[in-house]
């Protein structure tokens, strides 16, 4: 594990590769879409520190039911929202968190779960198997929890004509292009949100040190 590994640098390398290998029009479309999401982002509509989280249930990739009560039974928990198992940026971010975040959280007894609307029956577990992830990967069916947190985008977008097999709406079962914006949310034992970082640009996500610092503050407050 590299001590100073940067997720931002990995995303920058991914973009450079796309500049080299993608058609200019495809790259321009990708950049414009990300810019639109940043411009449209309204943080006042998302969950905030101090909000109390109501009970929820998620289905882990292996079929196990995961509840808020289980996650916060012994202390804080960290939720990482990602898009879907085939997302290139997610396939950089989740293994990065395995290397740079999860060892410290696991040692402290703090649960970490990556959450996506991608259904288990359409391949959610592939990202866990591909990278040997040892923290939880769970399905947020219909984006129910992400909607509650106010972090989804393209909620009503349906492509014209017949979408190709394996498109987002098929993977998620929603029939739309709705996905969560990448986000990290830390919740304390009392189910109060203590840290939120939402990334409307999917090539800009939360670095592990920021999450560890936030968790440290939560633990210090609990002791104090």
Automatic annotation (TrEMBL):
* Pfam families, per the entry: AhpC-TSA
Q: What is this protein called?
A: Alkyl hydroperoxide reductase
Q: Which domain of life is it from?
A: Bacteria
Q: Which organism is it from?
A: Sphingobium indicum F2
* Alphabetized GO MF terms: antioxidant activity; oxidoreductase activity
In this chain the Thioredoxin domain maps to 47-220
Annotated Gene3D superfamilies: Glutaredoxin (3.40.30.10)
């Amino acid at each position: 594990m590299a001590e100073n590994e940067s997720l931002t640098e990995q995303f920058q390398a991914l973009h450079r590769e796309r500049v080299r290998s993608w058609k200019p029009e495809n790259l321009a479309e990708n950049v414009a879409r990300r810019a639109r999401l940043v411009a449209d982002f309204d943080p006042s509509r998302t969950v905030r520190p101090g909000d109390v989280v109501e009970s929820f249930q998620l289905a882990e990739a292996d079929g196990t039911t995961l509840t808020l009560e289980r996650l916060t039974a012994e202390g804080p928990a960290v939720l990482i929202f990602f898009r879907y198992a085939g997302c290139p940026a997610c396939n950089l971010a989740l293994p990065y968190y395995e290397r740079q975040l999860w060892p410290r959280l696991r040692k402290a007894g703090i649960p970490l779960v990556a959450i996506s609307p991608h259904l288990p029956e359409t391949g959610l577990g592939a990202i866990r198997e591909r990278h040997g992830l040892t923290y939880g990967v769970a399905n947020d069916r219909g984006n129910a929890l992400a909607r509650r947190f106010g972090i989804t985008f393209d909620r009503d977008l349906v492509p014209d004509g017949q979408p190709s097999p394996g498109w987002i709406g098929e993977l998620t079962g929603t029939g739309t292009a709705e996905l969560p914006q990448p986000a990290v949310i830390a919740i304390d034992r009392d189910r109060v949100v203590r840290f939120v970082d939402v990334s409307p640009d999917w090539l800009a996500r939360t670095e592990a040190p920021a999450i560890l610092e936030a968790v440290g503050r939560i633990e210090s407050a609990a002791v104090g």
